[in-house]
């Protein structure tokens, strides 16, 4: 009981502690509206992606193709816009095409994972290479810039009430994802399958269908993230989004999503994304070189997952002890 | 026994099919002795590291950090080369010790902290890469430089004696030792046992955590040897050593028939897989295709092989079950 309460309040406490620490260290720079908006802006793509990949994490699966799929979707939208001579119609078709690419990629992952029983990390690891190759083929390994139509660049940069548009997208996606997970039957199914796939199958849940839908959702949010990233940077290349796989996973595990499945919430994941943004921003303001943030993120993943896994091991050990006692 | 022989024949068949395909497409430009020597040379580092990765996969694990361990080892040696006057063997020894340390860290995280293999090594992948940047050689302005390591007593490791490059000889030693270790030693058998059924292994007195730690330390050792030969061949060390490399040994093991579910496969299979992957790269290059297609083809082949393995395993299980049921009825 104690443990659960500690877990519940630890996250806001870490966030507050971090804000206080950074305010003390770099007061005026850190605690300005501009900087806060900047932090949120920089994590909005990760936040949007984690809203979809959380479904996969909840199943106990993983998606290692996030980074390159994001790049491929960014390339898709930009290339389609160029194909339609930078018109508004091109933007519309491009967004649809990118989302379709993401959904198809998710469908492909889900199909192979469920039909052949192949581990998720291997399928997504292999398709990561496929997406990277495809983006390189399509762009001829160059950076494709895209500054028109105005609506396209507006997606990533226009400000409403002082905050850029992607932040509102992130909030919208979070609400949607939270609603699906908390208030719909499908959401309950996802938690159930992640907790115990066999038991869910026996109690009549179509585990395969749930799994496929989760991977499709992950693909779609990755595509949306890719579109917004392309719009923010006004360009796309095979390298767009590189490193985002680790960032999204880190955001999830900081936010208390168990990579072993069945545990985690959308607010938690968004919290994780924001915390990571603060961490990045703070390290930046303290002039720690960007090459070293990989060290911090890696350590965070290991500590969070190790804590989680040890707790699991402890619980099962307790269960065994209980059974043994009963038998005696 | 029969099943594993068949799987070996399939991976050999794939390799042969690829050779025939490229010979048909690009003729003598592909099919000549020099090119084959090149292919074997290029496959060597993948196969050396593949020996370790095979063991990790046999324990039902994976190692995604191999490329980053190579980078750390290379950069450690570059530092010693640049800032000390230590003899070359001493420098190599330090590199190997660092590699062993990295492997031990992976093993501890996986064995003792119970972090799932692919998450733990995904995290250490970025940690070791970040460490490489931190210890990188910089000029006076703090810009990262590549460190030339062209002293002849070190660069000789990249050379050849007659037709045999040193790296090829090292690969043969690694594959033979790895195969003997896996098949004929107590620890090798324990590695198979842990992968096939960890619970049964624990109950029969095997220290699963210890076996995993040893396996990942071996991976670290293989990576450091791979790094020594890579930097000797390039005659320099950069932060980019081993970037995107981690895919290759895993792909080689998968093509060579090492089951990701653990408990089966061997080092010779991985060697065939490594030759397959390098032949593919070489052939694509000889066809003067856009190298970007390599990424696509590699990914597709991995997925196809894995799908085939899953289908084949299911089929074999079904046949075995039906046979068992029949025998049960007749008895």
Question: How does this structure look, described?
Answer:
The complex is a heterodimer of chains A (328) and B (331). With 328 residues, chain A is mainly alpha-helical. Chain A has one domain: ABC transporter involved in vitamin B12 uptake, BtuC, CATH 1.10.3470. Chain A is 79% helix and 2% strand. Chain A is built from 13 helices and 4 strands. Chain A has helices spanning 2-30, 33-58, 66-83, 88-116, 120-139, 150-157, 165-183, 185-195, 197-202, 207-233, 244-254, 266-285, 293-327, and strands spanning 144-145, 159-160, 163-164, 235-236. Chain A has a two-stranded antiparallel sheet. In chain A, helix 4 (88-116) runs antiparallel to helix 5 (120-139) and helix 11 (244-254) crosses helix 13 (293-327). Chain B is mainly alpha-helical. Chain B has one domain (2-316): Orthogonal Bundle (ABC transporter involved in vitamin B12 uptake, BtuC), CATH 1.10.3470. Chain B contains 13 helices and 4 strands. Chain B has helices at residues 2-26, 33-58, 66-83, 88-112, 117-134, 152-155, 166-184, 186-196, 198-203, 208-234, 247-255, 267-286, 292-330; strands at 147-148, 160-161, 164-165, 236-237. In chain B, strands 1-4 form a two-stranded antiparallel sheet. In chain B, a hairpin with a 2-residue loop joins strand 2 and strand 3. In chain B, helix 4 (88-112) packs antiparallel against helix 10 (208-234) and helix 7 (166-184) crosses helix 8. The longest helix of chain B is centred in the last third of the chain and has 39 residues, at 292-330. The mean pLDDT of chain B is 87. Classes of the chains: A mainly alpha (328), B mainly alpha (331). The A-B interface holds A 62, 64, 112, 116-119, 121-123, 125-130, 132-134, 136-137, 140-141, 238, 246, 249, 259-260, 289, 291-295, 297-299, 301-302, 305-306, 309-310, 312-313 and B 62, 64, 109, 113-116, 118-120, 122-127, 129-131, 133-134, 247, 250, 254, 260-261, 290, 292-300, 302-303, 306-307, 310-311, 314.
